[in-house]
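Case study 2.
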Amino acid sequence: YKFFITNHLMMTLVSGIAVVLVFWLVSRRVRVNGEGLEAYKTRGRIAQLFETMCTFIRDEVVRPNLHELTDKYIYYIWTIFFFVLFANVLGLVPIGSILYLLTGDAHMSHLGGTATGNLSLNVILALGSFIAILYIGIKETGLKTFLAHFNPIGWDDPKMLLIGIPLYFLEWLGLIIKCVVLAMRLFGTMMAGHLVIAAFLGLIFAAVEVSQGLAYGVEIAVILGGIVLTLLELFICFLQAFIFTFLTVLFISLVASHHHDEHDEEEDPFKDEDQMDLDKLIDPERITPMPDPAG
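Prediction:
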């Protein structure tokens, strides 16, 4: 067995380093500096963009599912989202072609690629989600409650064991399949986009076999189509990072989140998600009335 640094392995490392460097710079922009209200203002458009993305993931994806556990595990969720996002987006950058233009060395033209287009990386990401589900579920609910979650019928009635035992294994199998699908979905989507663009480029070579004039016409159509497909791939990069993160949060919430009765829980009118709800600027009636101190 020989170990090689492949393009996908290199891009995995580049994506990880990029996440660390970008958020190190963003943290310096977010850090309180000076006095007054201006000290709390995030400096720089890029830093504000990443801060907005972090706030969206926390308030619109994680908090509605994990509730009081949000602040405890939000750093893991942010890490997943931005690593997958950076790996997806960096795959659209023609790193090899840029290095070839700068150096003239044809051996560098193959460098680059989408790290998440490799099933091996996606399996590791899905395995991380699986471990997080087990760890958070056991830590927050206890081992006994966590295992009982996989058999909602219970073990008290011997007559129900014929149903409970197969159901128990099916629930575990379902959790494993969910994590496998996380890897397969990300791999298939990111790989499919590149295959479609490659198929479009192949039309040019097929047209050359017919006539040179047809090849020029097809080339223009392929360039325009390639631009549209690349923009679509950019959207899919963000979408797949969101889907991977959302499903991970959802699977964790199924086994770890403590559910409360909404009627028994007093609503806080100043909670973050209410303050961030822009619809209340349009429809003020949605604002929760403040409780009467006297009553």
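Confidence is low (pLDDT under 50) at residues 260-265, 275-281, 286-293.
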